[in-house]
User: Fold this.
Amino acid sequence: MIPRRAYLLFTVTGVYAVIIMVFLLLPSDSIPKVRILSPDKLWHMFMYFLLALGLMFSFREGNYQRWYNRRWTFIIALIHASASEVLQVFSPGRSSNIFDWLANCLGIGLALLGLHLFPKFFEKPLSGK
Assistant:
Protein backbone atom coordinates (compact mmCIF):
# COMPACT_ATOMS: atom_id res chain seq x y z
CA MET A 1 0.00 0.00 0.00
CA ILE A 2 1.31 3.44 -0.91
CA PRO A 3 1.68 5.75 2.11
CA ARG A 4 -0.58 8.78 2.31
CA ARG A 5 2.36 11.16 2.14
CA ALA A 6 3.42 9.58 -1.16
CA TYR A 7 -0.05 10.29 -2.59
CA LEU A 8 0.30 13.90 -1.49
CA LEU A 9 3.71 14.25 -3.14
CA PHE A 10 2.48 12.59 -6.34
CA THR A 11 -0.50 14.98 -6.36
CA VAL A 12 1.68 18.06 -5.89
CA THR A 13 4.06 16.83 -8.59
CA GLY A 14 1.13 16.13 -10.91
CA VAL A 15 -0.26 19.63 -10.40
CA TYR A 16 3.21 21.04 -11.10
CA ALA A 17 3.39 18.96 -14.30
CA VAL A 18 0.05 20.42 -15.43
CA ILE A 19 1.28 23.94 -14.65
CA ILE A 20 4.41 23.36 -16.75
CA MET A 21 2.31 22.09 -19.65
CA VAL A 22 -0.09 25.05 -19.48
CA PHE A 23 2.82 27.49 -19.28
CA LEU A 24 4.57 25.91 -22.26
CA LEU A 25 1.39 25.88 -24.36
CA LEU A 26 0.41 29.52 -23.75
CA PRO A 27 0.85 31.75 -26.78
CA SER A 28 4.24 33.44 -26.47
CA ASP A 29 2.54 36.87 -26.31
CA SER A 30 0.74 35.78 -23.10
CA ILE A 31 3.90 34.83 -21.24
CA PRO A 32 5.27 37.57 -19.03
CA LYS A 33 8.79 38.56 -20.01
CA VAL A 34 11.22 37.62 -17.27
CA ARG A 35 14.37 39.72 -17.15
CA ILE A 36 16.20 37.58 -14.56
CA LEU A 37 17.80 34.56 -16.21
CA SER A 38 16.35 35.60 -19.53
CA PRO A 39 17.77 32.65 -21.48
CA ASP A 40 14.79 30.46 -22.22
CA LYS A 41 16.81 27.25 -22.02
CA LEU A 42 17.70 27.84 -18.35
CA TRP A 43 14.00 28.06 -17.51
CA HIS A 44 13.30 24.83 -19.38
CA MET A 45 16.15 23.12 -17.51
CA PHE A 46 14.96 24.45 -14.17
CA MET A 47 11.32 23.46 -14.70
CA TYR A 48 12.20 19.89 -15.62
CA PHE A 49 14.83 19.63 -12.90
CA LEU A 50 12.07 20.44 -10.38
CA LEU A 51 9.64 18.03 -12.05
CA ALA A 52 12.19 15.20 -11.86
CA LEU A 53 12.97 16.04 -8.21
CA GLY A 54 9.26 15.97 -7.42
CA LEU A 55 8.92 12.57 -9.04
CA MET A 56 11.98 11.22 -7.22
CA PHE A 57 10.72 12.40 -3.84
CA SER A 58 7.28 10.98 -4.59
CA PHE A 59 8.69 7.56 -5.47
CA ARG A 60 11.02 7.72 -2.48
CA GLU A 61 8.16 8.40 -0.10
CA GLY A 62 6.33 5.44 -1.60
CA ASN A 63 9.27 3.29 -0.45
CA TYR A 64 10.22 2.25 -3.99
CA GLN A 65 13.71 0.97 -4.68
CA ARG A 66 16.24 3.36 -6.18
CA TRP A 67 16.37 1.60 -9.59
CA TYR A 68 12.56 1.85 -9.80
CA ASN A 69 12.72 5.49 -8.78
CA ARG A 70 15.30 6.31 -11.46
CA ARG A 71 13.58 4.41 -14.22
CA TRP A 72 10.11 5.85 -13.69
CA THR A 73 11.34 9.36 -12.99
CA PHE A 74 13.21 9.29 -16.30
CA ILE A 75 10.32 7.76 -18.27
CA ILE A 76 7.58 10.03 -16.90
CA ALA A 77 9.63 13.24 -17.12
CA LEU A 78 10.86 12.39 -20.64
CA ILE A 79 7.32 11.67 -21.86
CA HIS A 80 6.16 14.98 -20.37
CA ALA A 81 9.06 16.89 -21.96
CA SER A 82 8.46 15.27 -25.35
CA ALA A 83 4.70 15.81 -25.20
CA SER A 84 5.14 19.48 -24.33
CA GLU A 85 7.32 20.06 -27.38
CA VAL A 86 5.00 18.12 -29.71
CA LEU A 87 1.90 19.92 -28.40
CA GLN A 88 3.53 23.32 -28.92
CA VAL A 89 3.30 22.71 -32.67
CA PHE A 90 -0.50 22.85 -32.34
CA SER A 91 -0.57 25.82 -29.96
CA PRO A 92 -1.08 29.23 -31.62
CA GLY A 93 1.95 31.46 -31.35
CA ARG A 94 4.23 28.59 -30.24
CA SER A 95 6.64 26.35 -32.05
CA SER A 96 8.51 23.21 -31.19
CA ASN A 97 12.23 23.48 -30.65
CA ILE A 98 14.72 20.62 -30.32
CA PHE A 99 16.94 22.80 -28.12
CA ASP A 100 14.07 23.33 -25.67
CA TRP A 101 13.62 19.57 -25.53
CA LEU A 102 17.35 19.10 -24.97
CA ALA A 103 17.25 21.67 -22.15
CA ASN A 104 14.31 19.76 -20.64
CA CYS A 105 16.32 16.54 -20.84
CA LEU A 106 19.34 18.22 -19.29
CA GLY A 107 17.23 19.31 -16.32
CA ILE A 108 15.96 15.74 -15.91
CA GLY A 109 19.51 14.44 -16.23
CA LEU A 110 20.82 16.82 -13.58
CA ALA A 111 18.16 15.65 -11.13
CA LEU A 112 19.03 12.02 -11.85
CA LEU A 113 22.72 12.84 -11.45
CA GLY A 114 21.85 14.22 -8.02
CA LEU A 115 20.19 10.89 -7.22
CA HIS A 116 23.38 9.11 -8.25
CA LEU A 117 25.74 11.46 -6.37
CA PHE A 118 23.64 11.71 -3.19
CA PRO A 119 21.83 8.35 -2.96
CA LYS A 120 21.25 8.49 0.81
CA PHE A 121 19.35 11.75 0.43
CA PHE A 122 16.94 10.15 -2.03
CA GLU A 123 16.62 6.70 -0.46
CA LYS A 124 15.43 7.70 3.01
CA PRO A 125 11.73 8.59 3.11
CA LEU A 126 10.88 12.16 4.14
CA SER A 127 8.73 10.86 6.98
CA GLY A 128 11.83 9.29 8.56
CA LYS A 129 10.63 5.70 8.23
Summary: The two ends are 15 Å apart (CA to CA). The CA atoms of residues 5 and 61 lie 7 Å apart.
